[in-house]
Specification:
heterodimer; A: alpha/beta; Rossmann fold; two-stranded antiparallel sheet; 10 helices; B: alpha/beta; 2 domains; seven-stranded mixed sheet; globular
Amino acid sequence: MDVKDIIKEENLVYGKTKLLTDNIMHYCPGCTHGVVHKVLAEVIDEMGIQEKTIGVAPVGCSVLAYNYIDIDWHEAAHGRAPALATAINRLYPDKYVFTYQGDGDLASIGTAEIIHACNRGENIVVIFINNGIYGMTGGQMAPTSILDMPTSTTPYGRKVELNGYPLKITDLIAQLPGTCYVTRQSGHTPAAVRKLKKAITKAFENVGKKKGTSFIEVVSTCNSGWKLSPVKANEWMVEHMFPFYPIGDFKDE
Amino acid sequence: MADYKLMKGNEAIAEAAIRCGCDAYFGYPITPQSEVLETLMARKPWDETGMIVLQAESEVAAINMVYGGAGCGKKVMTSSSSPGISLKQEGISYIAGAELPCLIVNVVRGGPGLGTIQPAQSDYFQSVKGGGHGDYRLIVLAPASVQEMYDFVNLGFELAFKYRNPALILSDGVIGQMMEKVQLGSYKPRLTNEEIVARYGSWATTGKTHDRPRNIITSLDLDPYRQEQFNLKLQKKYREIEEKEVRFEKIACDDAEYLLVAYGSASRICQKAVDLAREKGIKVGLLRPITLFPYPTKAIREMLGQVKGILAVEMSAGQMVEDVRLAVDGKVKVEHFGRMGGVIATPNEVVAALEEKIIKG
């Protein structure tokens, strides 16, 4: 039997969700953004909420997220996505509003906006990509860069004396009574992707139930910024990031 | 019977917002404009019209809430005073760059820095020449009474939606805090979500339906040639606004040999100064710009054959006077008179400055 005889519609076990556009992604090979975009698009598609979902994209590598998922989008100023999402959620309480933010966006320049949106319990989903580095601008230190991690602005590694400590923002967020679901996931293995999808699904379901803010951190790789191959980057993440940013739920109410 | 009420300028802003069908107000307390947020919170418009009022964590967050609300086709606004308006500049630039309608109110206080809580007109450049980064303009309305504070809320929204451009009410601590009689308008209903889809569905993020491509609110375009084309489109819009939306008022100008140019509260002082000067036999008129962008350049030019000199009166070191000079182009003498730091000039000081700087000088 020729391989072409097997590739038939009825034999397909997997297909790309129609919510992912055909635009060629600008993300580097191995980047976690691609995985999270795919899972996010699948969840919106499977829940049948495309017409009710409004995304807010950040400044950073995922500034162009709106090119890849076929829903209505806002592109926010750096760090301000939760403020936009607050207004959209208040003005359209029946929509599913989410922000998609990186660590520089959410945990550095946008700390006030994320803390207060979560503290008000805005009925939104926050997807927080933590790769410990500024990818878009060329690999500078992020608030979440771990100690001794080399970046282009910490070429000898992050040092407490010079740069202070890495910020565990998700631990802070979990303390806020406005949040109903706070979890830290990853996307580096098929099992991790399945768990991530469960988490994102739960978060969007929480919006439907008007439970408050659902916050999902995704510990991610940036192989270009980290100067590692995709495989090595995953290994480095498991070895160095996971001990400091352990995977698991903080809160599920 | 008409509905009259004695109100502060700031209260009039709040009342007008509710009555003109505003969907949401996002603000942060700052003197001398806090009564806008306080009045709205006390009025509870969410019970009456469904309007949302939210105290944001900062002026930065408030303007970005406006950005979000405006992007989904809603009629949204914010207000603040000078230091807070400085913080909003980033958001205002994004809103202008994304071509969204909204209303911003600045109840100006003296600066720079924390400055003072007393009134000033020292934010003219920031309001009229850009303020934030990039080549953009706001539609700028300058109320000179509490009635105009009320009326310009609706006018500001109308112009903002007509041109899909942010509009700014440039007021100051005098107009914001003083009380005057206001004729209130009738209630205009807020648009329903269905009406918003029908009117603004081609650009607003109301949820992507199968019958249209996804709507994206953004000011980003990494292709320089497309970005240049977009900038040209913006400039074309601003030229159209300059052509169609200039508003001004002329007082005692018919026989005037000298001209005062002043906006907002300074124009109220100048009105009295015109009376005082005329009692002394000085034939002076007042031209009051109501729109600061677009500026009444032509109206000033048309006075050139008639007047011997022009005094621009502002509560600043001399900002609007530059636009008067651009209009006049050296053809008659133009001088500036102003007080700063929250000090309000008296009508007598204006007359004295006119005599000293224009008539004698």
